[in-house]
Design goal:
- Residues 245-303 are annotated as: Disordered.
- Pfam families: MFS_1 (PF07690).
- It comes from Lentinula lateritia.
- Residues 261-276 have a biased composition (Polar residues).
- With 519 residues, the chain is mainly α.
- The chain is built from 22 helices and no strands.
- The protein has helices at 2-7, 12-32, 44-62, 65-74, 79-103, 109-132, 135-148, 151-158, 170-199, 214-233, 247-253, 257-262, 277-280, 307-340, 348-361, 363-372, 378-401, 413-418, 424-451, 456-482, 484-487, 489-509.
- Helix 3 (44-62) packs antiparallel against helix 10 and helix 19 (424-451) runs antiparallel to helix 20 (456-482).
- The radius of gyration is 28 Å and the shape is globular.
- The termini are far apart.
- Mean pLDDT is 81; it is low at 1-20, 22-34 and 241-301.
Length: 519
């Protein structure tokens, strides 16, 4: 009775608010223990599957580079046709994205399964062209593989998907994608050259298994094994309500304030809108009881971009195109240029070594970039990569003009087989081009996703914009590289320097708008 007497001295609203404050403190303690949403990451097994998909796609794209010129010539084609064979998959990747995005339901499983099936089929067709002795079958095989290369866009989208990746982890995951790019650029041409050299066309080979076809057969087997792993370990992501929503909040949103008042009991204090304090109000993360941190960008947007944002989009898409144009051009050009230059005299084996060793030499820097991404702004990374690659292009233009691409090289057997020793100055240029433009391409997707509203819709749109820019660069770059000797090497390099210069001018003009959170 004493307790009841003491309690009756205070109005009901007073002890209700006291009780409400106590509940708020408990909720604050729970929320403070939850991981920062800006640092969230997807499930590890699914992330590994996506990163492996990116690496396998890169290897599949590059493994034919070192021997495609000889393969095309053997079947009656030309060096320009070889460039088309290298670059054509990206055209059909772009065409595949249109219907694929219509039926993917915001997930990744459909694209993964189609990528595995198309990659296996494409490799088999590419290998069968030798026995069929039909030039256009290697083109058909690469076109089929191109359907699988549509997965590249989904790899980028996965690593910037706001449903599963926080804003401060997007550049980090993009850096891991670049590591996969380095693996593909290094191991692809290297293994292609090794298969050409050591499988060859001698004893134990034939129309089915030889130096041209063995890389395709091996990769078809790897894709089959990977497909099994996808079916076992990958967990898809689909469209769903916001992570911060719960059934109770959704129910409240469907009711009017009058209905909420009717459903609230008399002893349950309510706020001005009719929502129960005790059961329905959630403490705001910006409450004074929460630890202070830098404000996050607003989560609600009108859906329209400002002029500065559109300028940033154009700049980033230009770099996405330029990086892959120049990389694709060099990868297609080195085997062709090396084979016709009497000072280089590259074979498919030495060209594959030259490409592969240069890309693998970049690998430690790619890994280092994963850790630097958390501390360095994306715009600085973009300009550093473009500047390094542009400087290498200028040096190579000087070497070509002076006919000194083999300067400092050795003509002994070992140097000619490895390729690097034949032209060390040329190799340094290739290393700097590979490192610079790969680093620049790392931040295009993550930086664009930070410039646009953090919604699933805009993430999908930004992924498409960057991927189509990549595709445009890959296909035109590969054709330009195959035709580099025909148009003249000075003009070939000059165009690449001009494209890089335009990109750096664009970045300088929108420098303030390119500022974004690190990580």
């Amino acid at each position: 009775m004493a307790s009841a007497t003491v309690r009756s001295k205070f109005p009901p609203s007073t002890y209700a608010v006291d009780e409400d404050n106590s509940a708020s403190e408990n909720v604050n303690q729970v929320l403070s223990s939850v991981d920062d949403p800006e640092l969230k990451l997807p499930k590890r097994s699914s992330l590994v599957i996506i990163l492996l998909a990116n690496a396998l796609l890169q290897i599949s794209f590059f493994i034919i580079v070192s021997s495609s010129n000889e393969y095309a010539l053997h079947l009656g084609g030309t060096s320009t046709f070889s460039g088309v064979v290298i670059g054509i998959p990206t055209v059909f990747s772009g065409l595949t994205l249109i219907p694929l995005m219509k039926y993917d339901r915001g997930g990744y499983g459909l694209a993964l399964n189609i990528s595995c099936a198309a990659s296996i089929s494409g490799m088999v067709l590419y290998a069968c062209a030798y026995k069929a002795n039909w030039l256009y079958l290697i083109l058909l095989g690469r076109i089929t593989s191109g359907v699988g290369f549509a997965m590249w866009m989904y790899c980028k989208r996965f690593c910037s998907d706001p449903r599963i990746v926080g804003i401060r982890r997007r550049t980090t995951l993009a850096s891991w994608l670049m590591v996969g790019n380095g693996v593909g650029m290094g191991l692809g041409p290297l293994f292609g050259g090794i298969f050409y050299r050591y499988v060859g066309f001698g004893k134990g080979t034939g129309n089915v298994w030889n130096g041209f076809t063995s890389p395709a057969w091996v990769l078809a087997g790897l894709w089959a094994v990977y497909w099994v792993a996808v079916r076992i370990w990958f967990e898809d992501v689909f469209e769903k309500p916001s992570v911060e929503s719960d059934p109770e909040e959704i129910e409240l949103e469907d009711k009017t304030p009058v209905q909420l008042m009717d459903n609230t009991s008399n002893d349950d204090p309510v706020n001005a809108s009719g929502t129960s304090f005790r059961h329905h109000v959630r403490p705001s993360p910006s409450s004074s009881t929460m630890p202070s941190r830098s404000p996050s960008p607003p989560t609600e947007h009108s859906g329209k971009l400002e002029l500065g944002q559109w300028a940033s989009v154009v700049c980033i898409c230009w770099f996405a195109m330029a990086s892959f144009f120049i990389l694709g051009a060099w990868e297609a050009n080195i085997p062709v240029y090396g084979s016709v230059d009497p000072h280089l005299n590259f074979t498919p084996f030495s060209a594959g070594n030259f490409l592969g060793i240069g890309a693998l030499a970049c690998f430690p820097f790619f890994v280092l970039n994963v850790f630097l991404a958390r501390r360095v702004q994306d715009r600085y990374t973009l300009m550093f990569g473009a500047g390094l690659g542009g400087a290498a292009l200028i040096v190579f233009l000087v070497l070509v003009s002076l006919d000194k691409t083999a300067s400092g090289g050795s003509s002994n057997w070992i140097s000619s087989q490895i390729g690097v020793g034949t032209a060390p100055a040329f190799f340094i240029c290739w290393f700097a081009v590979a490192l610079g433009f790969n680093v620049a391409s790392t931040v295009t997707m993550s930086l664009l996703s930070k410039q646009l509203p953090p919604t699933v819709k805009w993430n999908g749109m930004s992924s498409v914009m960057v991927q189509y820019s990549n595709y445009l660069g890959r296909v035109t770059g590969a054709v330009w590289g195959g035709a580099g000797v025909s148009v003249g090497m000075s003009r070939y390099v000059g165009l690449e320097i001009a494209i890089t210069g335009i990109g750096m001018a664009l970045a300088s003009s929108v420098w303030k708008h390119l500022k974004a959170k690190t990580g």
